[in-house]
Amino acid sequence: MKNQKVALITGANRGIGFETAKQLGQKGIAVIIGARSKTAADEAAAKLIGQGISAFGLKLDVTNAEDRKAAATYINDNFGSLDILINNAGVAPKESLFVPKSSETAPEEFGYIFETNLFSIVYLTNELLPLIRKSNAGRIVNLSSILGSLTIHSQPESPIAAYRVLSYNASKAALNMFTIQLADELKESGIKVNSAHPGWVQTDLGGNEQAPMGIEDGAKTSVELALLGEEGPTGKFIHMGEELPW
Q1: What's the confidence (pLDDT) of residue 101?
Q2: Integer angstrom CA distances of residue 2 from 97, 180, 200, 230
Q3: CA angle (153, 237, 194) in 5-degree steps
């Protein structure tokens, strides 16, 4: 464990988060599985342990301040530092991500989406940043979406025009701004911060039937950004090795 890198993946008990933890674990990284309940976290960790992966379950509701503080304490006490933080946990509107909606968006929907997709990520990252600074090669990956691209949405014939759900898309655009500004703030530290677009993946959020990408491919961008070398990019928006426009 002494020389083993440590990664925390939020929302990692299923979907892209679990697959990301699996792929990192297969590369010899110790993975901390963050999930809203300790039971879900431990069950997911047990599956990975059964595959020979060093995995640990952690109760982490990212919207809960006490859970965020407890996560920092747990990592400090058990590992001393954190090499990789993958802010994977996120939510979509409870109604649908596939029905365009802007002016009629309810305040409650904005609150629900932004609390998880932006504010909790900022707060958790800030809580864990002292531990990431202790790493020799800290990496922060924010799970964004191409639906947060202002450039692509503003195109006259935008390929994502059918998915203009303001609450979700705006939360991802705001998350991208956090990526840009945090990367600039940390540019002298060696810590790299990037946004990842996983693709349209077969998950509960992405739609199991419509989505063209499997879970394995959906995790690849996060894993790649988590393992960037010294010359790798920072402050970028990436999908499968290619830079996307903000």
Answers
A1: 78
A2: 43, 32, 37, 21
A3: 145
Residues labelled as active-site residues: 168, 172
Residues with Cβ < 8 Å from 181, sequence gap 6 or more?
none
How far apart (Å, rounded) are the C-alpha atoms in residues 210 and 204? 11
Q: How many domains does the chain have?
A: 1
Mutual angle of helices 120-132 and 166-185, in 10-degree steps: 20
**Domain span at 41:** 6-243
Each residue of 38-55: pLDDT tens digit? 999 999 999 999 999 999
Q: Are 121 and 106 in contact (CB under 8 A)?
A: no
Domain membership flag for residue 1:
no
CATH code at position 31 = 3.40.50.720
**Average pLDDT rounded to a whole number, residues 232-238:** 97
pTM over 0.85: yes
Which residue type, as a one-letter code, is found at position 235?
Answer: G
Q: Say whether pLDDT at 1 is over 60.
A: no
Tokens of 234: 């920072």
